[in-house]
Specification:
By secondary structure, the protein is α+β, with helices and mostly antiparallel strands. It has one domain. About 15% of the residues lie in helices and about 35% in strands. It is built from 2 helices and 12 strands, in the order βββαββββαβββββ.
């Protein structure tokens, strides 16, 4: 494993760039699916139900990269969407290590330390995440199946906790929240989905 650290004068935070040694193909978490949900480089609401297998394999690959950095690394945030180049599905995972007291970005290898007084973030349990349920919830909200998931923001998966608030006012606490921006004919809708009752929440 290669570790490159840089520090600036004045006590700025140290940012590291880690290049984990690949142990298998899963250490490169990008799946090429020419005929999959990201065919053509875009992801629609109607194709979300096809994302589950790719999501699970991508998370496994991202975890492998994080574990190569620190054995105690745990997933705390995830963003999923289409790869920038090619038709593959890509997960950008953010992991936390209590041993290192730092975050690790699986997609860049960059590590970011946290201040001593900052509480540790809760672990993101991916078991409740169902892309079929995400699709069903959006369709029930009246979103057209041809609506596109915003290519830059993708689908964000986070835990709405006391120390890690995520979502608009009224978002249920202590639950996993899905954030998605859907675009139809140039109009964008910013939606949050709580995974306890699978209901949508928005700022407006």
């Amino acid at each position: 494993m290669t570790l490159v650290l840089s520090a600036c004068a004045g006590g700025d935070d140290v940012v590291g760039i880690v290049t984990p040694t690949p142990t298998n193909d899963l250490s490169q978490p990008v799946i090429s699916l020419a005929d999959g949900p990201c065919a053509g480089g875009r992801l629609t609401v109607g194709a979300l139900a096809e994302m589950q297998a790719a999501w699970e394999q991508e998370i496994t690959g991202a975890q492998a990269a994080a574990t190569a950095w620190q054995e105690d690394a745990k997933l705390v945030e995830a963003q999923v969407g289409c790869a920038f180049l090619g038709p593959g599905v890509e997960v950008k995972g953010r992991f936390y290590s209590g041993e290192a007291r730092a975050y690790f970005a699986s997609y860049t290898g960059v590590t970011t330390p946290i201040d001593p007084g900052v509480p540790e973030p809760p672990v993101l349990d991916t078991a409740p995440v169902s892309f079929e349920r995400i699709a069903e919830t959006l369709l029930a909200e009246g979103v057209d199946p041809t609506a596109e998931i915003h290519p830059t923001s993708g689908i964000n998966v986070r835990y709405n906790g006391t120390s890690t608030p995520f979502g608009p006012p009224g978002t249920p606490a202590e639950t996993i929240i899905i954030h998605v921006i859907v675009v139809t004919d140039g109009d964008a809708r910013d939606l949050f989905i709580e995974t306890t009752n699978w209901q949508t929440i928005s700022f407006s």
